[in-house]
Amino acid sequence: MCDIGCPHLQELKSTKGVELYRIIFSSFVAASSSVARKRKAIHCFCFVCKSIDYRLHSCLQCVYFGCYKGHHIQDHAKHKKHYLAVELSHGNILCVACGTYVYDDEFLNVAHELMVRTGHKLGMGALYRPWEPSAKVLELLRKNPRRRKIVPGVAIGLRGLINLGNTCFMNCIVQALTHTPLLRDHFLTEEHVCRPEDQAGCLVCEVSTLFQEFYSGNKGPLTLHRLLHMIWTHARHLAGYEQQDAHEFFIATLDVLHRHCKASAPALPENENSQPDNPHQCTCIIDTIFTGGLQSDVVCQACNGVSTTIDPFWDISLDLGTSARGGNNVGDEGSFNSVGSDLSLSGDSKQANNGPTTLIDCLERFTRAEHLGSSAKIKCNNCQSYQESTKQLTMKKLPVVASFHLKRFEHSSRLHKKISTYISFPEQLDMTPFMSSNRNNRNLLNSRTSSSSSSSSSSDSAGDWISSGSGPLSLSDNRYSLFAVINHLGTLDAGHYTAYVRQQNNHWFKCDDHMITRANLQEVLDSEGYLLFYHKKLMEFQ
Amino acid sequence: MLSPEEVEALEGINRRFQELMSDPENVNEAANFLVDDLIDEMTIGVVFEVHRSAKLGVLDPEADMSGEDPSKFKIVEDPGLDVFGQPPVIKKFQDCVCPSCNRGLAASRFAPHLEKCMGMGRNSSRIASRRIANNSKETSSAMASEDEDDEWTIGGDRRRKKRDRSNGNAKKPAKSLKADRRNGDSNSSFSGSVSEGLGGSTGNSSSIDASSAALEAMRPDERRNLLGSICGVISEHTRKLCTRSLRCPQHSDEQRRTLRASVLVDESSFQSDIQVLQVNVESLGLDPDDLLSGLSGNVVGGLGLGSLSRGSWETERSNASSPADSVSVSSSTSSKKREKSSPGKSSSHKKKSKHSSSHEL
Amino acid sequence: MSRRRTIDASYDHINNDGKEKRGVNKKAVNQHLTIEGDKERFKELLRRRLTECGWRDEIRILCRDAIRDKGVHNVSVDDIVEEVTPVGRARVPDSVKKELLQKIKSYLYEKATK
Lengths: 542, 361, 114
Known about the structure:
The complex is a heterotrimer. By secondary structure, chain A is of the alpha+beta class. Helices cover about 35% and strands about 20% of the residues of chain A. Chain A has 20 helices and 19 strands. In chain A, strand 1 and strand 2 form a beta hairpin. The two termini of chain A are about 30 Å apart. Chain B is about 50% helix and about 0% strand. Chain B has 16 helices and two strands. In chain B, helix 9 packs parallel to helix 15. In chain B, strand 1 and strand 2 form a beta hairpin. Chain C is mainly α. In chain C, helix 4 packs antiparallel against helix 5. Chain C is globular, with a radius of gyration of 19 Å. The relative contact order of chain C is 0.08. The chains are: A alpha+beta, B mainly alpha, C mainly alpha. Chain C: It comes from Megalurothrips usitatus.
């Protein structure tokens, strides 16, 4: 059943095309330029009762605005036989003769195009579009009427994983990955196509199968023997029966998945800009979800010149501070750290002594400017000499999934132990204070207040409000919510990994190899925490 | 631009606005009605969306939620049981099949088995070192690392299996070099004692009766299978088949083709087999350069100052290509753990180039 | 200036209950927001919050039900709007409303003092 417009609309389209609609839309529905907005404000009101409301319509065939509630647009239509009108909130077309709103693909495309343009101009990114299934998808859905609904209290999406001999590290990582919402959605919907001869060794195929198993509704535990074999094959440095580190396994898994995704991706057209090896251009699902950009700014203390580099990262490893280790820190790493914190520019002497106790503390330490000390002078291109400098790390671009690794294991030649300090972490995390833009703004403000007194405001508020990420109208959103936690129990040499995962909002489960049991949020937040996985709350369309 | 009347109207609007907003009561009222207005506008927006979907006929798929009975999957809340209602102890033996040797075994013993099966772990390196000592006359270390290609053959032919086992140790030379660099590293231990059942020093060529006579004695399909996975060119001095990979640099494709032409019934399959198997090996990501580059990667990653050591004064993008490289850019302290992971990091960088360029012979 | 005041005053005769005045006020505020482009931004902010909290999905379901009840061919936008609008207003979470109110107020104050 497909209503495509109506005869009146078709007639208009065949005689006048979509140009008139386009003009009306870009002037009065999605006014993108400053002038257009002003015109809209001045001219758009009902010609009869002068009211402005969200159901104001513009006649499609002459210059007339009429409101809906007062029937003024309907009156005009009947009177002038101009049956078609555009409502100015969303650009939908009303046919008074047919008595309903009518939809036509060509008009809809124009509307979409103009909306996107306006969104960009106002610094809002592409505006939200509801999901519309393609013909192919529709066909599939009709042919397969059975639906599985995930409601609260249902165990779909949960599976136990058998321990294959100290493989709890792998089980936990797999639990975290299968409960990563965007990754799960990708694997359950995308068709990963491998050539038959490649399938045996393709990790993406294996993970795909794994996701299908997890959501199959079956209850028995799974064995990840094929996965283990594959990872050990492609990441030889990991292979070996001894207890492994979950964090290393995580990075290796992402790496192999990334490589295999690229390997099976369709060949891109060759152009002079494309570099097959350049990960900055990789569009595989792993990079889309996990890759962020870490900005490193080194400031020369002599000339204040800043040198900036941006490195891609998949996770952030956070130091737990020297005092957390306790005792003398004469070892190589220990001394470096304490020197750094003594001379740190943050001036927060409390932190230097007590060490971090929360995730936020760790992130603050991570992103604070550190004085590098006289023993580590860097050659400044500006000064052409070796100068003392400060270094600061900030997040240039945050990935969709932010993974944090608390460095609880010491592997230096002197120290060989586990740091078990409790670090509390929140369920909701706002990464705004740690963003590069924040640092840039702070610096801008500092330099501005010294020069001019007026605050940044102009009549075209578009650019300033959004790009600075501040002000009441900022639409930049850096909020993350926790969805998986991996914990390590025991000592460095003999330990066990378990994971907490969020299956649905507020439904947490503890995954201990093949035993999956219900947990509550407080339990999760009280746990020690070794690997923490946060998912971005708001997804922005490109 | 705007006409004079429009400009005047604009000013009028502004003025009225300013007047109004000077009274806080007006501000409150305005804010309230704006909120209501915006909500209503949102609501009608949703209405339009749904209406449009209905008219376009795309509303059906969502509407019908008659599906399976959700109670089938209901979570069990019993304290002694897991969410599926199962007790903690696994009753039956979970079995799995080893992808490497195709043997069935108990799941809980899989990891230690796989370790040996793939030729790693404490016991395997002793064998490997012995092999180097014995083979040192014939092979150089570069070639030894290329031997690793041998073991990744497809299929479960027993001959090849046996070869796998002993060839697996060929990896050891390069691996133990890596181990030396990684002191104090608890996760990998490559020193070790003798492992059981692994062959002697000349495992490479002796496990296959690789003379041309033996080749003829095989059935055609056995022959094809064998030649589908090894170089096969008969070496002059040993009179035996070269058991290195299909891309073995010692012999040319031409030689391989000639051999197959003379030995196999259907020679045309050689070319396409080469393609297929090359892809397979490549997709497994094995690269003789891998381990060597891993060594150099170690040096770079190990320096204390992280990104600073890479000349970060340049403002263009840094050289760290793979995110795996930058795992621990976090702090300016170096941790041994970071060193350990760098072979994997740099090697992944190298492996990427493998996919795009053809293998240089 | 005085001329304008007389014109405005003349309107007061027509509608003494102040409704007209409120309408004029509404219009002025709306217009100003439109000029600055901030109306679109507030809309986007609200859209995000309402999607996040599930309001959008709730309303969609209500609309679908309304269409199903009346039949796809017979139902009009007006019907659905009538049925759904009051519910829409009621179902917005207080926190979202509060946030939007507060942001609009501070925005208006800010603009007024320019």
